[in-house]
Amino acid sequence: MARLVLSLHSEFDNKSAIGVFDSEQGLQYLQIEDLSNSLSQPQLRGLCCVGNRLYVTTPSSLRIYAIEPSPGPGQAWFRLQREVVLPEWVLDKRPDAGLLAVHYAAGKGRLLVACNALASIEEFDLEGEFLGRRHLWQIAPKHFQVPAQASGKSGFGHIRGICENPSGELFLTVAFRNWSDAGSVIGYDSGELLLDQLETPHSGLFLDGRYFVLDVQRGSLLGLPLAADGEALQAKATSQSFAARGLKINLRGLAGDSEGLYAGFFNFEKDEKKKVASQIVRFDPRSGTQDKLYLLPEVAGFRFPAPFYLSPFATDIGRVVGDSPLLVDATRPQPCPASPVAEAPRAEPAPPVVKAAVVAVQKPAAVRKEQPLGKPVIEVADVSLSYRRGVRLHTWLRQRQDRDFRALKGVSLTLREGEVLGLVGRNGSGKSTMGMLLAGILQPDLGTIERHGRIQLLSLGIGFNNELSGRDNVFVNAALLGLSRREVLQHLDEIIEFSEIGEFIDEPIRTYSAGMRSRLAFAIATVIQPDVLILDEVLSTGDDSFRHKAEARMREMKGKAKCVVMVSHSANQIKKLCSRVVWLERGHLILDGRPKQVMPEYEAFCQSPEKWLRRHPNVAARLQE
């Protein structure tokens, strides 16, 4: 009996789910996921199981689930442990990172994730730690041109599948290679083409001397021989219910073994009145015969779910779920005649529309609650900091000392690996002060800050002295950013070259244009790779020609940093880029949570502070302390 895990998405309800399927019961289990806080489209895409964990991609994140060994009735089988978001996946104007296929390469001990926005394969360990990145032009330099500038935009193809042959060699299924109509199968280590001129390929696996791949648009399974004298197979999916409404069949997701190959069977029709329920189709890999269809049922709030990816599910959980399985007789395999691969497919009886007797249960709030991410990298405990104001002259020339200005008051928070934290607040709220405290540039009056790893603050132009030369300012500015003189000397030539200052490096900073100042500041701030990167209103770096160069370095840095902190006034940027938001006001921490929880309150406060504070008297009282 085959057992698979699959990702499903309902365009009509804009929801995604994890399903468990077996060849005897059909769809056995459905877990609808809460992706309302997703950084991009709320979709689950590629997935694979490794031991007791399930790894699933969304368009801009990698989600790591623990597989519950013995879930009780109504309990979730998959518990979210961590959601990994690399900053360069989200810190750009593109809608998402285009993450798709995910595969565990046991021989390398690495998890491979296809990132189509960067035209790359991202490599992780099983804990979700980023290990490295290989772009398509690095994987196969003969077949992909190296871009003149790494803009992060996909112009090289669409990586839709990652698989390995019996010898452990890895291969990528790439559609629209170099934006042509040709799809290819490319060796991940060799860079050589295994197969070429495929049309709209998806997924892929090696079995019995053939490479099997789906043709999405034609609704076909292709079995391409690896030996010169081998026989090719082509199996076109058929369905009476689709044919009756004139709907085109699309296939997506491929998994199975020598007993049967399974694929998701659906249509892109947008009109709900014309829509037909999606199905799972099974093919005989030996003969190229479609021999069975399994209906994917509708459940309340999850209409017409379409399969995205399928993957083997080698675990016994859920075979016995107690007295109340999540889906009771929701679906059963619907037999169809064995139809040989022919141009005129035989018609099979239309399977009846079967609806779930019991609605799929969403994870309860206690289960859906976010799990901690990685290890703490910065721990802030009850921190306060005040600035002493200067002496001012008043009426009758009398002097008085203003009371100290309190920048932060009793702030506590913990930053963990994998987070992208946004700091928001009005001018004078303490955002930049918090950034400098986190970086170690300032020390608190009260409380403690524990740092684990190298912290880097990127705040353009801190420490520049207009009368000093650019070279001298490199040493001053770098010292404020935490770099030693030895480190500066080691990287001085690199800083000068990257900033494009040239002979002006020995001229006073006051003679520099704004663009030259920002280029030099950026080069200094980014020369050393930190564990934690703090960005204080760093959105532009001079002229357009330099901006591309700066963005490339930023992507490189963010891909290696364990945690990113963004200080910004831009609400839209925070909503798009951050997984967590901390709102500061007059030195107090007002809210700490997801963007969807914090930002509406913050925006309402900015529009009418008095009105918002009347509705929250406890906060108003704290701000008066």
Question: How does this structure look, described?
Answer:
This protein has two domains: 3-368, TolB, C-terminal domain (Neuraminidase, 6 Propeller); 376-381 and 408-623, P-loop containing nucleotide triphosphate hydrolases (Rossmann fold, 3-Layer(aba) Sandwich). It starts with a strand and ends with a helix. The protein contains 13 helices and 36 strands. Mean pLDDT is 79; it is low at 149-154, 319-372 and 390-402. Helix 6 (470-480) packs across helix 7 (485-499), helix 6 (470-480) crosses helix 8 (514-525) and helix 11 (595-607) crosses helix 12 (609-615). The chain has 625 residues and is an alpha+beta fold.
Topology:
Layout: E1 3-10, E2 15-22, E3 26-33, E4 47-50, E5 53-58, E6 61-67, E7 78-84, H1 87-90, E8 99-105, E9 110-115, E10 120-124, E11 130-135, H2 136-139, E12 158-164, E13 170-175, E14 183-187, E15 193-198, E16 201-207, E17 210-215, E18 220-225, E19 233-236, H3 240-244, E20 250-257, E21 260-266, E22 279-284, E23 289-295, E24 306-312, E25 333-339, H4 365-368, E26 376-387, E27 391-393, E28 399-401, E29 405-416, E30 420-424, H5 431-439, E31 446-451, E32 455-458, H6 470-480, H7 485-499, H8 514-525, E33 532-536, H9 544-560, E34 563-567, H10 571-577, E35 580-585, E36 588-593, H11 595-607, H12 609-615, H13 617-623
Parallel strand pairs: 30-34, 30-35, 32-33, 33-34
Antiparallel strand pairs: 1-2, 1-24, 2-3, 4-5, 5-6, 6-7, 8-9, 9-10, 10-11, 12-13, 13-14, 14-15, 16-17, 17-18, 18-19, 20-21, 21-22, 22-23, 23-25, 26-29, 26-31, 27-28, 35-36
